[in-house]
Amino acid sequence: MNRFVITAALMLFAAGSASGAEGWGIDNEKKTRVDAKVVDLLCEVTGDCADNCGNGKRQLGLLLDDGRLVPVVKNQDIFAGAVEDLAPFCGKRITADGLMISNPKMPMFALQFKREAPDGKWSRANWYIKNWSKANPGKPGKDWYKHDAKVLELIAKDGVYGIPGLKPSE
Amino acid sequence: MRPKSILMAVAMAGILYVPAADAATTPERVKVTGEIIDTWCYVTEIMYALGTAHHKCAVWCAVGGIPVSIKDASDKVYMVLKVEDDDNSVANPKILKVQTHQVTVEGDLYVRDGVNYLIVNQVADDKGVVNMTHEDYGIQPFGE
Description:
The complex is a heterodimer of chains A (about 170) and B (about 140).
Chain A: H1 2-15, E1 29-40, H2 41-46, E2 60-64, E3 69-74, H3 83-86, E4 93-103, E5 106-116, E6 123-124, H4 127-135, H5 144-147, H6 149-158
Parallel strand pairs in A: 3-5
Antiparallel strand pairs in A: 1-2, 1-4, 2-3, 4-5, 5-6
Chain B: H1 3-16, E1 28-38, H2 39-44, H3 55-63, E2 68-72, E3 77-83, H4 93-96, E4 102-112, E5 115-126, H5 134-137
Parallel strand pairs in B: 3-5
Antiparallel strand pairs in B: 1-2, 1-4, 2-3, 4-5
């Protein structure tokens, strides 16, 4: 039964044009499904371009058909951005499904699902942990931030408050 | 099409063609003083996201590839795309080391569609972590 419900939901999601995104209760968020080109933000904004959008080392965004540029700052993984999800689509049009957050401080997009437009295969925007797990076999991906070598090194050096020697009271 | 018409069409195409680099906006030279922040947590306000209370989470998010920004005293947010000729803006080790620090930078500001994109040319000052928020907010988000 559960499998049937999930399959039916996925079929409806894939076939529909309305967003299948989950709301996060963030101010000014709007569930959005939109076709757009994946671009390297530094290149798009300044003209300083690199091959293949910087091969995962540059922040990426969506160039909408009306010319608006929106940075994609988050994917569905805990504490992770969306570069791993978008880098394979550099320069291509995708259908992005997620939350458009029209915050006065800064508009941004939180990616939840993506596919190559117009009819590629949908995938969840969870490739940060997917790739992290491949690079860290045997470690629990869902808690990647507790086991990541860079995180552990930084926290060991500067402490949880960012000030060496300053520790939480017992 | 007659030769004259062809020349005219080529000339018009030349006038209308805008290379990608020229489509970029014009920068403004700026000096910004503020805290290095985790863009997602601060802008969305999904938790308290400043100072010592949020430092560990800011490290997690920066390592996870979430863009890093500078928040100035007027709460203006500048998303950092490049630092001193280093165009790595995804979990860049140099930027990871200064999470939550109070810095003064000089750089080029590009404003497009409501976002302040900052190219840092020089880090003029780094005071380290000075925003002591943990006594009021504990450790965000899990309290440990």
